[in-house]
Amino acid sequence: MPFDPSSTDRAPQWRPQLRRRDVLRGGAFAAAGLGVAPLLAACGGDDDGGTPAGGDGAYPLARPDAPVTLPIFDDNQPIAAGQEPEKVDALRVLNYADYMAPGVKKDFQKKYGAEVQVTPYNNYDEMLTKISAPGAEFDVVFPGPSVMSRMVYGKLLQPFQQSYLTNLTNAWPEYQDPWYDQGSQYSVPYTVYTTGVGYRSDIVTDPSEGYQMLWNPDYAGKMGILDDAGEALGMAMLAWDITRDINTGDPEAINAAKEELNKLIPLGVKVDITQYETLANGKFHVHQAWSGDLVAARWYLAQGVTTEDLGYWIPEDKADVVIGNDNICIPKSSPSPVLAHAFINDLLDNTIAEKNFNWNGYQPPLTKLDADYLIEGGYISENLMSAVVVPEDFESGIKFYEQTPAVENMYLAAFQDFQSGGS
To answer: Which of 173, 192, 377, 417 maximizes the CB count within 10 A of its CB?
Structure first.
């Protein structure tokens, strides 16, 4: 049965912007002491984002066809098994704002006596700056696959004591041994998502335009692009058949995608990430969106609008859809690592994950919470079934990978040109 929408777990009527999957900038890594540019150069990395060879002081870039087992260092070992959770006043969480149900945090406090205190960040830059600041102590953090290796080699994360994570067996098998962290030594999954086009189905007459809906002048002034360089340029690449390789290091392809984005400027395109709210209230008619946003949009519907007035388009065969996930990890600096393991294990509990999903709309990759279960539970209307992610989607979908600094900087420069009004 669905949770009561009138409960305190209902999403608030306003959310800070959640730039969940922003690309990384060299300055943040410098602040973290990772020395990314020379480190990747030592790997012999190609500018096309391919997997470089390992070597002294270097690490490979993880890919599904070249998975990595992250090292466990002598001075960064898992904590001992069999310990009781620490008795502390607060569990310090570094996470995106409003990405976890208030009720889940309150239940944890009742169970362990520790308040879940969230320090928010809007992107990975800010997260890396905060986690690496002198004296910083956080117990839990939520990085994506594209930063896992850098954080591990920079010793910002600690390896798990697997005996505390008994609920990991609830996760899809793929996430019990993911390609970016074989053996789940440093990470467990939090949510999965696709990137498509959210739209108002009571206004948009032809969603079969797909990605090109965002270039339709009929929606001028009512269209939006995600505030994320990789997502925005990647969608332009897919929309206009520039390339299916959204991680490409080809300057011509990146420039061509930038030029397509620049064509949106005279149409009054907006760059933001509040589409879960602005599609629901009618401010936008089409917006690049993550799948969880359309599920969460039910909390923001304007008067007279229903979930039937919302739509989420991705390619029907799911071959050209961007797909990804967010993870949960424990920082090396955690003063309460046993309690942190308990918190993560709770988030992998089916009942707790279901409660969390009801609030944030982002699907946890747990076997029990499959598409049929979510529909029968009343969480997702039939017209938004395209927002459901299934394990097979990761075989056909397109993923963002960790990039070399040279490629990363090309994407940033192109996106900044678009944001500044085009060259």
So the answer is: 192
- For residue 266 the two structure tokens come to 């005279």
The C-alpha atoms of residue 338 and residue 353 are separated, in whole angstroms, by: 20
User: Which tokens go with 184?
Assistant: 């789940």
Write the single-letter amino acid at 62: A
- Contact between residue 101 and residue 355 where contact means Cβ atoms under 8 Å apart: yes
SS (H, E, C) 160-229: CCHHHCHHHHHECHHHCCCCCCCCCCCCEEEEEEEEEEEEECCCCCCHHHHHHHHHCHHHCCCEEEECCH
The verdict on domain 26-34+75-191+325-385 having CATH code 3.30.450.20 is: no
Distance CA 3, CA 293 (A): 18
Q: How far apart are CA 46 and CA 43, in angstroms?
A: 9
Pairing of the two strands 322-328 and 310-313: unpaired
SS3 state at 99? coil
Per-domain residue ranges of the chain = 26-34+75-191+325-385, 193-322+396-419
At residue 186, the pLDDT reads 98
Domain 193-322+396-419 sits in which CATH superfamily? Periplasmic binding protein-like II (3.40.190.10)
Structure tokens at 111: 């169970």
Q: What angle do CA 365, 370, 373 make, to 5 degrees?
A: 135
pLDDT-above-90 percentage for the chain:
67
Would you say 97 and 16 are in contact if contact means Cβ atoms under 8 Å apart?
A: yes
Identify the residue with better confidence: 333 or 37. 333
pLDDT tens digits for 368-390?
A: 998 788 888 888 888 999 999 98
Sheet strands (E) in 256-406: 270-272, 286-290, 310-313, 322-328
User: What is the structure's pLDDT at 29?
Assistant: 41
